[in-house]
Amino acid sequence: MINKIQQLTLEIEQLQLTNETELENYRLEYLSKKGKIGALMDDFRTVPNEQKKEVGALINVLKTKAQELFDVAKENLENTVDVTTNVDYTRSVAEHQVGARHPLSIVRNEILDVFNRIGFNVSDGPEVEDDWHNFSALNFPPEHPARDMQDTFFIKDAPNMALRTHTSSIQVRVMEGGQLPIRTISPGRVYRNEAVSARAHCQFHQVEGLYIDKGVSFADLKQTLLYFSKELYGTNTKIRLRPSYFPFTEPSMEMDISCPFCAAKGCNICKGTGWVEILGCGMVDPQVLDNCGIDSKVYSGFAFGMGIERITMLKYQVNDLRLFFENDVRFINQFKNA
Ligand code: PHE
Description:
Blueprint: H1 2-13, H2 20-31, H3 36-44, H4 49-79, H5 103-116, E1 121-122, E2 128-130, H6 131-134, E3 154-155, E4 158-163, H7 168-177, E5 182-191, E6 203-213, H8 218-233, E7 239-246, E8 249-258, E9 275-284, H9 286-291, E10 300-307, H10 308-316, H11 323-326, H12 329-332
Parallel strand pairs: 1-5
Antiparallel strand pairs: 2-4, 3-4, 5-6, 6-10, 7-8, 8-9, 9-10
Helix pairs in contact: 1-4, 2-4, 3-4, 5-10
The chain binds phenylalanine.
Phenylalanine binds next to strand 9 and strand 10.
């Protein structure tokens, strides 16, 4: 009898109860009234009286152990997902989330494309710039208001350094590189110390262009910008140049295009004028050429610069500049098919 109990104990200890069928078979074979442990109770009656106490205790230990094994195995089974039965193979797969290109990237690439087609290459430069490349080489006199703390983020403990306020700084670097002629456009992020609002931000993006060769004239500037405007806003687009001032160009101009929304009839975007301003431009001041080691008696050139945000707002009728920097996917996803 004692042997039998030990035998059964060994037997149940070696069992593997890893699924519901095994568990149920175990219950029937060992735990039910007609099971192997139940049968022990029948045998128990034949045990001589003086052994009953000892054998009874052993049977109880076995019974408890057998029940425990059952309980633990049952709980484990309930906590594990049975991958062979609980997966719904008919469910459609989760689609890949395809993002959208940022509208500023879309428009920047479009601008670069338009100029690449007429032989402009792309140049790049640092966002933390020294005074020379951002200001002095470009004829900003020492007292010019753009150097003021109001407009420029200076670098603490580095009095000569600032976050670039325009990508004209890249053009200085290209001119200093000394390879002529130059036909380049410089896209990049720029910084100005402005209060953030729907119309102004302390960071924005520019594309600036520079063309330097022998005999480059004002007519070349006009033709290039007319071509650009027609490519970007449609072949009916007209341009208008208004006199302006930049320290690095002479003469300097601001350029308007005929309003692309109302065919120049006057609407709230062009404030009834039929024209919207899109860029600044001019003939490179000979002094700037000389500053950068280019002989201004032999070479001449033009430059222009525009804010990508402004061009994008006009193209897609976005009315708040801050949307470009908030990375709200509800905004960006609207440009999926742009
Ligand atoms: N750098 C000027 C700006 O940031 C734009 C510009 C570039 C004007 C080239 C004229 C020529 O406003």
